[in-house]
């Protein structure tokens, strides 16, 4: 128990300190190799994408190997240098997902201990009236000493504090301890080993999911200004304002690609949204396929009758034709212009455009740069544009640029069963504007490096944060002019603060990390520079990049411009065992000759078959239209044909894995590994030992052994390298493939291997002697067919790549005839991609 593959993680601590919304988190994981050979220890954690990693180190037998933050190019060079010296190095990159994975692995000697320590920082954002921090918890084994400790200090005073975990059962609920009084809040979660078990004697851990802490602070006034050491931060969140009426135009893509589940989920979400529209609001729907359709000619008031009519309309929305995105969005802008000019909508109101698309414009104006330019000119800063990109077929970059240029933001809607909820959740965030045109003005001659200080909308339950630096480092007084337009009148007042008051508010704070305001300012500045950079071009983009890089290096933030390089100890490579050993019980594979093994877990047994085809043949192994993942393999033969047998021995000599939505291709041969990302190509050899993280992909190459590729949806592929003696007269090097977490692929997955991911069952009727006395034959009922099968063994090379481990299985003859859908030649494709 608690020991997985010889590695025991005996301690894991997540220590989080939050001061004025700025969170500083340290994850410490300690492991020992209880086996009697070298073992690979993997440390992987998922972080919120809004966080920046700021430090990492690993300590092996008392020696600390620090991670160093470098500019991406420099990091790459250092990595290449380390590899060319035969050293191994880990390369950590920020990637652009909802959470991002940080992975480092190291080989440690039998009996040795390793400590990993990772630090990351994040500014907690207020949403729906609460600050929320989530911690992804997944120790993957029972941990003797497991603890999450959160300490919050809020000088304004804490009003509520909640903590919950998606994995928390009734039994675990009272292990979460939380207390708060005045300015301090504490949350601790420390389940004992037995409390971590999924059942009384199980060795599996229940700790797998999100642990979330939420709190809010007192707000006697809308403003909280804090001044420390020449920096200031201003939190602005007025309460009890009357709601502003809003004018919302929904612009919905109904092109053919939305048909099926997507349009169904869109209808579902719009119906829910209609329930939330307030009577003072105005709204309308614009649909675009090849043509543009409007529900009503003008914006209409959300009376109960109109909402009822809208529901009928939404239920009737169907798909048609191509994607005239330009036509749809311009019609929406015109309609808002007309409504304001004709004084149809209240003067004091917020106008919002929400566009949903799953594709790329291809009717009307389809050049995205032209669309952007026209839209910006037409909106003129008057309305907020939100772009929702449904699925992976969208040009998200374009949607994001266009939204940012028009004071909104873009969001990806993941094509999943909860897509309707994602849409509705987004609407909730932006559906309650309380103020428009908010400006926080500070004396220009006193402040430099001010973060963004003007905002189109202030939404109920959110918070505006502005930070800056005093030109005179010793200045300890600040006045600010606050302005905004509310439902009934304009908001306008001046507020001020001095450093002494801040110091007083912080008095009881024992662990002030003094420069927290400076780091908060750096974090916010960086976040905004990176966002501005998205829509910028040319020299402006170069300047923004340079500025952001400077800050990332100065404050040691891992951002998209920097990498963390960890150079691992030199002499830890070894011949024993296979690195990065996957522990999931459920896997699918082919390996050698090419043997396919299909596990049947409910029978604790397996079915296997071979495919005999000529060298050069390419077989489709997996194809999933939903995730866009395809895996094909090309056969090679022996060095020369074997005259003795009719059937030529074949192996997989080239494997191609593609994800069409991520525009990624991975080509693996026994010589080299190539990643193609659009037009970008990166090459490695099997002599490399490296972890590469790019948007949506994590690739770990374990020198001369195997590689592990994880993609978007969570599915992982392990490719094992089989090396034969270089001068072998007949055989040549070949590859094996194993698929982990195949349930992360969709139900529509097919292919020689993929068709079995949905599970299969069989019945053995009678056993009788076969042609080989050691291998009995039997009659198997599978897929309503009766097949003659033979008891045999196939080798699983995951754990022992040299000799393999024998897996007993029922062998289906004649290229899997009767077991696979169709015949094996149906799976022959013309090329690797
Ligand atoms: C990073 O972590 C290591 C190990 O705990 C520590 O010695 C070092 O001071 C930290 N660096 C920074 C910049 O905090
Ligand atoms: C757990 O294991 C112990 C000792 O092997 C056994 O006596 C007990 O019945 C088991 N409990 C369960 C619930 O399986
Ligand atoms: C970029 O930076 C240079 C040097 O500071 C400056 O002269 C130039 O005006 C900047 N360009 C833009 C577009 O901001
Ligand atoms: C295979 O057959 C060819 C022609 O029949 C012959 O020339 C060659 O020597 C044979 N090879 C072996 C390994 O027996």
Automatic annotation (TrEMBL):
<keyword id="KW-0325">Glycoprotein</keyword>
<dbReference type="GO" id="GO:0005576">
    <property type="term" value="C:extracellular region"/>
</dbReference>
<feature type="domain" description="VIT">
    <location>
        <begin position="1"/>
        <end position="122"/>
    </location>
</feature>
<keyword id="KW-0654">Proteoglycan</keyword>
<dbReference type="GO" id="GO:0004867">
    <property type="term" value="F:serine-type endopeptidase inhibitor activity"/>
</dbReference>
<dbReference type="GO" id="GO:0030212">
    <property type="term" value="P:hyaluronan metabolic process"/>
</dbReference>
<dbReference type="InterPro" id="IPR050934">
    <property type="entry name" value="ITIH"/>
</dbReference>
<keyword id="KW-0722">Serine protease inhibitor</keyword>
<dbReference type="Pfam" id="PF06668">
    <property type="entry name" value="ITI_HC_C"/>
</dbReference>
<keyword id="KW-0964">Secreted</keyword>
<comment type="similarity">
    <text>Belongs to the ITIH family.</text>
</comment>
<keyword id="KW-0732">Signal</keyword>
<feature type="domain" description="VWFA">
    <location>
        <begin position="247"/>
        <end position="430"/>
    </location>
</feature>
<dbReference type="Pfam" id="PF08487">
    <property type="entry name" value="VIT"/>
</dbReference>
<comment type="function">
    <text>May act as a carrier of hyaluronan in serum or as a binding protein between hyaluronan and other matrix protein, including those on cell surfaces in tissues to regulate the localization, synthesis and degradation of hyaluronan which are essential to cells undergoing biological processes.</text>
</comment>
<dbReference type="InterPro" id="IPR010600">
    <property type="entry name" value="ITI_HC_C"/>
</dbReference>
<keyword id="KW-0646">Protease inhibitor</keyword>
<dbReference type="Pfam" id="PF00092">
    <property type="entry name" value="VWA"/>
</dbReference>
<dbReference type="InterPro" id="IPR036465">
    <property type="entry name" value="vWFA_dom_sf"/>
</dbReference>
<dbReference type="InterPro" id="IPR013694">
    <property type="entry name" value="VIT"/>
</dbReference>
<dbReference type="InterPro" id="IPR002035">
    <property type="entry name" value="VWF_A"/>
</dbReference>
<protein>
    <recommendedName>
        <fullName>Inter-alpha-trypsin inhibitor heavy chain H3</fullName>
    </recommendedName>
</protein>
């Amino acid at each position: 128990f608690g020991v997985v593959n010889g590695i025991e993680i005996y301690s894991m601590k997540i220590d989080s300190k939050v001061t004025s919304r700025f969170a500083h988190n340290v994850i410490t994981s300690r492991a020992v190799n209880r086996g009697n050979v070298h073992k690979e220890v993997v440390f992987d954690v998922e972080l919120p994408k809004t966080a920046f990693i700021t430090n990492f180190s690993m300590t092996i037998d008392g020696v600390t190997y620090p991670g160093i933050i470098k500019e991406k190019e420099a990091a790459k060079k250092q990595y290449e240098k380390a590899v060319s010296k035969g050293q191994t190095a880990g390369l950590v990159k920020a990637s652009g997902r909802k959470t991002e994975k940080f992975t480092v692995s190291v080989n440690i000697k039998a009996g040795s201990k390793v400590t990993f320590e990772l630090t990351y920082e994040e500014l907690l954002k207020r949403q729906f009236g609460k600050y929320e921090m989530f911690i992804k918890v997944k120790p993957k084994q029972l941990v003797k000493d497991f603890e999450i400790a959160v300490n919050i200090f809020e000088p304004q005073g804490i009003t509520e504090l909640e903590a919950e975990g998606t994995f928390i059962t009734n039994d675990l609920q009272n292990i979460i301890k939380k207390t708060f009084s005045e300015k301090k809040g504490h949350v601790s979660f420390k389940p004992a080993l037995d409390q971590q078990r999924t059942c009384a004697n199980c060795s599996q851990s229940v700790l797998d999911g999100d642990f979330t802490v939420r709190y809010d602070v007192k707000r006697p006034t809308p403003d909280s200004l804090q001044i420390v050491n020449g920096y200031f931060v201003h939190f602005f969140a007025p309460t009890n304002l009357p709601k502003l009426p809003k004018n919302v135009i929904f612009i919905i893509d109904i092109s053919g690609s939305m048909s099926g589940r997507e349009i169904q989920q869109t209808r579902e979400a719009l119906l829910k949204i209609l329930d939330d529209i307030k009577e003072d609001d105005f709204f309308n729907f614009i649909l675009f396929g090849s043509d543009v359709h409007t529900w009503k000619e003008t914006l209409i008031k959300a009376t109960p009758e109109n909402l009822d009519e809208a529901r009928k309309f939404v239920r009737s929305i169907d798909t048609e034709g191509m994607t005239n995105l330009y036509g749809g969005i311009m019609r929406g802008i015109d309609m808002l212009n007309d409504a304001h000019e004709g004084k149809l909508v209240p003067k004091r109101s917020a106008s919002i455009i929400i566009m949903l698309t799953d594709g790329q414009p291809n009717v009307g104006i389809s050049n995205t740069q032209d669309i952007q330019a026209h839209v910006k000119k037409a909106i003129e800063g008057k309305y907020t544009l939100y772009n929702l990109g449904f699925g992976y077929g969208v040009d998200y970059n374009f949607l994001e640029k266009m939204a940012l240029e028009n004071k909104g933001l873009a969001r990806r809607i993941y094509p999943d069963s909860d897509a309707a909820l994602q849409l509705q959740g987004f609407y909730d965030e932006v559906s309650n504007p309380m103020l428009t045109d908010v400006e926080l003005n500070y004396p220009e001659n006193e402040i430099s490096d001010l973060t963004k200080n003007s905002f189109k909308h202030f939404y109920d339950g959110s918070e505006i944060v502005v930070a800056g630096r005093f030109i005179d480092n010793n200045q300890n007084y600040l006045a600010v002019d606050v302005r905004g337009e509310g439902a009934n009148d304009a908001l306008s007042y001046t507020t001020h603060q001095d450093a002494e008051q801040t110091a007083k508010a912080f008095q009881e704070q024992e662990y002030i990390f003094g420069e927290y305001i400076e780091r908060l300012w750096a974090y916010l500045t960086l976040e905004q520079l990176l966002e501005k950079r998205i829509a910028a071009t040319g020299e402006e983009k170069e300047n923004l990049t340079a500025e952001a890089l400077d800050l990332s290096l100065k404050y040691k933030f891992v951002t998209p411009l920097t990498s963390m390089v960890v150079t691992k100890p030199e002499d830890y490579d070894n011949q024993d065992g296979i690195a990065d050993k996957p522990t999931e019980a459920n896997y699918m594979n082919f390996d050698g000759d090419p043997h396919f093994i299909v596990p049947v877990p409910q029978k604790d047994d397996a079915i296997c078959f071979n495919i005999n085809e000529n060298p050069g043949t390419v077989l489709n192994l997996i194809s999933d239209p939903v995730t866009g993942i395809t895996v094909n393999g090309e056969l090679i033969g022996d060095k020369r044909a074997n005259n003795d047998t009719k059937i030529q021995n074949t192996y997989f000599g080239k494997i191609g894995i593609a994800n069409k939505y991520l525009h990624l291709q991975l080509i693996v041969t026994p010589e080299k590994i190539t990643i193609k990302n659009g037009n970008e190509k990166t090459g490695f050899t099997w002599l490399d030992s490296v972890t590469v993280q790019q948007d949506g992909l994590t690739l770990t190459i374990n020198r001369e052994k195997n590689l592990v590729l994880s993609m978007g949806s969570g599915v992982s592929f392990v490719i094992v390298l089989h090396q034969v003696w270089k001068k072998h007269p007949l055989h040549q090097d070949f590859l094996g493939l194993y698929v982990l977490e195949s349930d992360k692929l969709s139900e529509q997955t097919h292919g020689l291997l993929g068709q079995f991911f949905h599970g299969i069952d069989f019945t053995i009727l009678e056993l009788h002697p076969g042609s080989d006395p050691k291998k009995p034959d039997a009659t198997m009922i599978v897929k309503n067919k009766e097949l003659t099968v033979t008891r045999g063994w196939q080798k699983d090379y995951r754990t022992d790549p040299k000799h393999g481990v024998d897996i007993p299985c029922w062998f289906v003859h004649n290229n899997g005839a009767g077991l696979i859908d169709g015949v094996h030649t149906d799976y022959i494709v013309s090329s690797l991609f």
